[in-house]
Amino acid sequence: MFKIGFIKLGNVASSLVADLALDEIAERTDIEVRSLSFGAKMTKREAEMSAELKGWEPQLVVMVGPNAATPGPTAARELYKDLPTIVISDGPAKKEARESLEAEGFGYIILPFDPLIGAKREFLDPAEMAIFNADALKVLSVCGSVRLVQEELDGAMASIIAGTVKLPAILSTPEKCTERMDFKNPYARAKAIAALHMAQTVAAIDAAACFRLKELDRIAVTAAAGHEVMRAAARLADEAREMEKSLDSVSRRPHARSGAILEKTGLLDKPEPI
């Protein structure tokens, strides 16, 4: 069985499902999955502890979390330079930083619309944190980001099994993500694209609250504004999904027991090989 390991340093919405999306009904017979999570922390200390996964001898390592250019994730990558490794993050988006990842042999999937949360004590509590992640995950799921990650990880595993390692190098866009969902209604796809653009703006709003503003009232109101945009994006994504459901045209791509990806559109259709 193919061994794929996940290291979760800090949290973005994708952290919640990157591993689950490879075996959504727990029936695959071709892979083993192990995930090592450090909760919300992503310092060098957590990076050092991530070396534990090496003892399991994974064939592919996936590192998921925010801001891959910070010291913690950077230190973790140093430990896994000798293994095929893919970074899933909300950044870095700068071309030079992405080229550096490629030069060091890492694959990457950058998702700018998996945004920074309003992580300030003046605003965020556990309930608000969970609500934000639920809204973000709805946008990423409906609009194609989750499928993009799942398909790219499946493809990377297949390439390693075939003996030719091919890791993704993707700076994702709303257009690229929504293509993966095969929307039949162009208005539904337009809503999905809009939802992803809205989610992408959330990071900029929350960054101001987290790093630039000093006054309590401005921090709280700005962080709340970012979360309201995320909530509105989730509603728009839900509308897109409902439009596709009304036409019985929701694209579904479950895994077979063998790991092959199947496909169906009509609710009562049988999943068939692609």
TrEMBL record:
The keyword rRNA processing does not apply. It is an enzyme of class 1 (oxidoreductase). SUPFAM superfamilies: F420-dependent methylenetetrahydromethanopterin dehydrogenase (MTD) (SSF102324). Pathway: One-carbon metabolism; methanogenesis from CO(2); 5,10-methylene-5,6,7,8-tetrahydromethanopterin from 5,10-methenyl-5,6,7,8-tetrahydromethanopterin (coenzyme F420 route): step 1/1. Coiled coil: none annotated. It holds the Pfam family MTD. Its EC number is 1.5.98.1. It comes from the Archaea. Keywords: Methanogenesis, One-carbon metabolism, Oxidoreductase. Residues 245-274 are annotated as: Disordered. It catalyses: 5,10-methylenetetrahydromethanopterin + oxidized coenzyme F420-(gamma-L-Glu)(n) + 2 H(+) = 5,10-methenyl-5,6,7,8-tetrahydromethanopterin + reduced coenzyme F420-(gamma-L-Glu)(n). InterPro entries: MTD (IPR002844), MTD_sf (IPR036080). The keyword Magnesium does not apply. NCBIfam families: PRK00994.1 (NF002162). Catalyzes the reversible reduction of methenyl-H(4)MPT(+) to methylene-H(4)MPT. Belongs to the MTD family. This is F420-dependent methylenetetrahydromethanopterin dehydrogenase.
